[in-house]
Every structure is written in C-alpha cells, then in structure tokens.
C-alpha cells in the first residue's frame, strides 16, 4: 500500500520533474514569441494570463502543435514551434503533436489542385514517421507523459453531419470572410469553395478533441487558433491560449525559408552541410537565428560577425548531431571527391562508383532504387538521374545509406 | 417460364397502366406551372425538354417532392405541388415524397430559434403520418410503383465529414451569397451562420440519393433545385428537371395563404367549413384557385361569379370528401348549436357539454386531454381553454373525435 501525501499529488501521478509553481521565471516562454493571446484585461477580473495559468496549474498543461503530413523533409523554419514545444516539455507540460492525416487522406475535394493530392494511409504514416525522426533531436520523446502523438482522423472520421452542422453553426459567413486570405480573395472575386470554411473549424475541433490548453503556431495561425477557442467554449471547455511564433527568413536573408526557394537548412542535411550553410548567414539575420533556433543568451554573443556565424553553426549542429559532429567538421571530417575525374554529362550511378561510395555503377543503380542515395539530404529515386555539367554539383554532399558521405568539389 | 416480348418490357416489370409514349398531350404538365427548367437551348444539341423526356423515357420517371415534417396541419396552398405530383402519377411516373426528418431532428444548431426546435424521432414520425393522412385524398397510394415515401435521415445520418467536404466543395461562397435571401442578409450585415450553407446542399443530396428525374417546388425553391442538379452531375447522374409552382394567395385575396394569418383552408377542416370558406373567395382569385386546385377546364367556368364560387366549393369538397359530402352540405348537414344558451366567459369543456357533444363537462375535459377535440380542424389540448365572449366562436366548427361536429352560431 502506498501512502500519498496530499500536497505531493502531482509527483504521485507523474515521476517527471514537473516543476510546479516553482518555475516562475518565464523567459523561456517569451523568447522569440510574437504574441500570446488572450492577454488579461483590467475590465475582466476572471481573465488570466498564460503565465499565471502556468504558475498555478495543478496538472501538466496540454500544448498542441498541428503537423501537416503531406511533405517529408523539414527545415529549421519548421523547427521553431517544435523548439517552443520542447520548452513547455522541460517546464513539465505535455506536448500534443497532432498529425493532420484526415485532411491529407481526403486531398483536395475539388480535384483541381495537384499539390493537395490524396495520400494513402500508408503514405501519411510514412510521412508522419519521417517527421518524427527529424524532430527527435528537438523533443523529449523519453520522459513519461511528456509527448502525445495523435492522428486527427481518430475523431474527424467519426464526425457525422449533425456534429458538422453544429461546428458550422458556431460561426457566421461574415466572420469567416474577415479572415486574412479569404478577405482578399472575396474582394478580388477569386472563388472561395465552401469546404474551405470547414478547415479552420476542423483544426479548431482538434483542440476540443485533445482538450488543448495552449496551441502553438505561426503568425498566420491566429485566426484558426481563435476558432479553436470558440469551439472549446461551445463544447464547455476552458478555451486554449494561442502562442504565435514568427516565420524564419531563409539563408538568403530575403524571403521566408522554403524548400522551393532553395534558401533552407534541412534537418536531414549532413552536419557538415548545415555547418557550411549556417556559417554563411547574413549578419542581419543572426539575432533572429540565435533567438529562435538556440537557447544562448543574446546579450553575450561574440562581437565579431564571423565569430557569431561560427557560433551559430556550432550550436545548431551540436543540437542535432552532438558536439562530436562539430569537432569532426572542424577537424575536416568530410571526404572530398574531385569531379575533375568524371566526364560530363554523367549519370549519378556512375558518380557513385567513381567517388568510391559504390563498387560499380550497377551497385549505384541498385542503391538509388532501394532509396539509399541522397544529395544534400534529398532522396534521389530516379536511377537515370544525370548531370550536364560538373558545376551543378560543386559543394554538394552525396550520401549513401546513413553513414557514407562525400563532398563533391571541382 | 414467361416469354417477354422485347418491346413490351415495361409492362413486364410494372403492371400499372404506364402510358409510355402515348401520353403526348402535356396540358396536365403545364397547368398552373410558373417555370420548368432547364429549357432546351438551340445552341446545345444535347439538351432535351422535359416534354421530350416524358415522351421518350423507357421507365417511370422519379418525381421528387420534399416535405418539412415540423408542422402537423396543412392547407390548400401546400396541396398545389402534391396535386402536380398526382398528375405525374397518373401519367405513369413514381412520386418520391421525401420526409425531411434529418433536419427536423437536429433543430436549429445555434439554439437561437424557438421555431426550429429539435423534434424527437417519434414526433417526426407522428407529423409525417399526419401529413400522409392529409394528402391521401390527393395522391395515388394504391397503384404499385406509384409512390415512394423516404426519410432523408436514411442517407444524411450516414454522411461523414469526407463526403460533407465533397458536397461543400462543389460550390463557392459567391454562388451561395448570390442566393435570394442570403444576398439581402449579407448586404444588410445580418448574420448568416455557416451551417445555413449546408441546407441547400443537403436538399440537393436528397436528389442524388433518390436519383430524382424531376423535382417539384414553389418558386422560392429554384436555387435549391438547381443545387440538386449540380450535385447529381457531380456524382455522375443525369441532372433533374425543376418544376416551379406558384404560392397560393389566401382567402383574403391579399397575402400568401398561411395558418398564422388565418386566411387558409385546412385540409383537416370539416367539409362544411371548407365549403363555406371557398364560397367566399374573392372573385379575382377564382381563376388561380380553379387552375391550381382543380382539373376543371378554365374556359368553361360559369359566367356568374356566385356560380363560380359555388362550383369551386363543390369541386374541392368533392376532391377531399366525395360527392356525398357536397350533397349533405347543400342539404344542410351540420347541426348548429346556439351559443345564446351559454353564459360567457365559458370554458370549452362546458361548451362541449352544453352542445350535446359530451355528456358532462368532465367528459369534455377528458376528451380535450386525450386530443379528441378540434376547433376549425385545430386540435385543442389545454383543458382550461376558455372564451371571453360568444362572438369569438360565431361560425366556427367544434369537433369531437372523427365524426361528431356542431357549428357554433349566435
């Protein structure tokens, strides 16, 4: 028989180091945050700040982050809310990752969008697994009670028409058309299809289903998070707080980090590749990168810009690959292969052989087919992949399996 | 073994007098109709008129009429599309009556409307039964294959979120806001709740579910019937025709016939009451009433207005109650009870006794409680129902059970 002291009830249900009301320093909460809403108002005595909620809660709060499982590779821009999620985990709370498989499996019901094609359950699960592999270095996967991964088809596939009508009845057309994006499209007379109005409500209903206390998202998510608050109120729950994070500028310092613009640092990229890209970040971006992507104190950064760039590269590589990876890079770990030995145009299978990664072009082809070959972290699956000129490959990292890499040089 | 001659295949599957391509006179189709759509266009060689479809079909067409089971008593205005449905039945086609029980059982999801309160399955079924009892004199209930009664919860309660998104994706916000009713409300900034956009799509999906060839409705139903066409096309069906019928003016000749305005003739009213009301129809309404509520040739009506009124009263009473009812009325069938014998204010239970319908006030109360008492066809359920002055009751018909009536006179 266990006797539980009534004041230590939290420890009795959760052996993690839940810090309780001791954690009164909220610098971890505010770092890099654009907005937390709602803010308590003087006029409403019942309103409460997120800080007060965190300080007084008698249970771990549930912190929601929604994930779109349509893509595979993610980059440092995507890591920002995940890092904030980790900060909540470290403060003793529960990260609730929601895989938006329901929408991904439906695709675009108008059939007009190639981008939003319908994924099979298998594809969704593979993407979700890939996502989890990539955020594993960021999140606490191990402490019991700190991470919950949920697929939203669990509740959305059971939503019948009666419940859907109820969700829809909580909002007016005017409220929906006031939403950024819809407002401009309606004004420009670009068609808005009716099902698009359901997506914010579906995301909001996710908050109801997991009983979220806080939802994290980019600044473009404010409307959807507010819809979640309304739905939670409608279903008798305490509405969640919203915590909005900025979008990260890419390595070019000009546009939002994005795979299609090529200005990204992918979480799957070789440590050496990450190091190299981060060492070249324009000076005016460094403060944002340190604030959003590291926990280093911002008032103690090196004065010399080159030292700052180096520190950023070291710190981020360390996060994802450990200090030894940093040491190896700085000791010159990555073998180089000079493309001067190859006659172009050349097939990738031939380069795999020439570089010594494979024993023959035939083995190179097989490895490509098996999905074991990556270029700058991106999987290559077409055995006929070829390059017209060696300059296309300068500086890129060719990878075989998990552990074999060469950097391609002139 | 039965040998079926290939050209008589219809007769082999349906023993009803399906008239096939013989019924080439479509005066029955056009009588009293405001609009049939679509009309064939010269530019589209594939377009077909409803008349051509009727003349060439090799199977009975399916003629849809939706019924709202939230009310109980119906009036002559409601009978207009039902009469047209009968005309289709007589031409060999199948009437598909759709009881809109799904919406009735949900009620108003905003919870703001008292009018659209949620009905139980029992209430819906009782209302539907009452409806069917009232239209029984109009429709052909007996010929096999001529009538199908369906509850739309059969398919709507099974509609999952994926299918609902698909329905919504067939229309744009702009199309929906162009709908009469929505357009003005949006302009006036009166709130339109999102679920209201689903109702036309639900009605449209009813057409898909029953594979309607034609939908009947009032002129206010054009949009909804057109939505049904779009959805049928979306789901690979041939789109239905729409047939629009006018709204009937009430006995006052001023406003739409409506129970709340008191200018109606209820299908449940006593034949004598119907006769009396119809005999007083203003002359300028007579042509519409004859056209919409009878099959009499309009060019052979009596010249004298009083004769026309009488003919209308006779014809409609005959439709619902038979020629003998007309004869009885004209021979003075309805016993009268003079209210001069009653002291006012008076309870209805007392009047039931005084008039001889009940043997005591106590029995009167019991009969009211049991639901067996009607005044002008409306059931009275409050045992304490009382009247301040006898003039409130002049000319009204008090009914006990199915067969006992008195007309209350001064």
UniProtKB/TrEMBL annotation, chains A, B:
One of its GO terms (biological process) is tyrosyl-tRNA aminoacylation. It is found in: Cytoplasm. The keyword Cytoplasm applies. ATP binds at residue 259. A motif ('KMSKS' region) lies at residues 256-260. GO terms for molecular function: ATP binding; RNA binding; tyrosine-tRNA ligase activity. This is Tyrosine--tRNA ligase.
């Amino acid at each position: 028989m266990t006797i539980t002291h009534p004041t230590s009830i939290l420890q009795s249900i959760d052996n993690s180091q839940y810090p309780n009301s001791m954690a009164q320093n909220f610098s971890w909460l505010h770092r890099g945050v654009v907005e937390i809403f709602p803010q308590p108002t003087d006029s409403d005595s019942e309103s409460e700040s997120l800080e007060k909620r965190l300080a007084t809660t008698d249970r771990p709060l549930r912190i929601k982050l929604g994930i779109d499982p349509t893509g595979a590779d993610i980059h440092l821009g995507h890591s920002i809310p995940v890092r904030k999620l980790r900060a909540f985990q470290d403060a003793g709370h529960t990260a609730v990752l929601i895989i938006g498989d329901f929408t991904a499996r439906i695709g675009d019901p108008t059939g007009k969008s190639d981008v939003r094609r319908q994924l099979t359950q298998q594809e969704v699960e593979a993407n979700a697994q890939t996502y989890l592999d990539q955020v594993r270095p960021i999140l606490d996967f191990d402490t019991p009670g700190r991470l919950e991964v949920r697929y939203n088809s669990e509740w959305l596939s059971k939503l019948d028409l009666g419940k859907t009508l109820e969700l829809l009845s909580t909002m007016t057309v005017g409220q929906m058309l006031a939403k950024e994006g819809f407002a401009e499209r309606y004004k420009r007379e670009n068609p808005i299809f009716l099902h698009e109005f359901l997506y914010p409500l579906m995301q909001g209903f996710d908050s109801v289903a997991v009983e979220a206390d806080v939802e994290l998202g980019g600044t473009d998510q404010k409307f959807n998070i507010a819809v979640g608050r309304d739905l939670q109120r409608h279903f008798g729950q305490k509405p969640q707080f919203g915590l909005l994070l900025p979008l990260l500028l890419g390595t070019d310092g000009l546009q939002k980090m994005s795979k299609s613009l090529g200005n990204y640092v992918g979480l799957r990229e070789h440590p050496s590749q990450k190091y190299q890209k981060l060492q070249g970040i324009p000076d005016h971006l460094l403060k944002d990168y340190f604030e959003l992507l590291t926990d280093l104190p911002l008032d103690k950064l090196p004065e010399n810009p080159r030292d700052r760039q180096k520190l950023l590269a070291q710190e981020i590589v360390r996060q994802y690959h450990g200090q030894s990876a940093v040491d190896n890079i700085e000791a010159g770990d990555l073998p180089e292969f000079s493309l001067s030995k190859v006659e172009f145009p050349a097939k990738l299978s031939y380069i795999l052989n020439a570089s010594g990664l494979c024993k023959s072009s035939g083995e190179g082809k097989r490895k490509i087919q098996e999905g074991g070959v990556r270029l700058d972290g991106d999987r290559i699956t077409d055995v006929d992949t070829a390059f017209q000129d060696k300059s296309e490959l300068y500086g890129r990292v060719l990878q075989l399996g998990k552990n074999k890499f060469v950097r391609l040089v002139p």
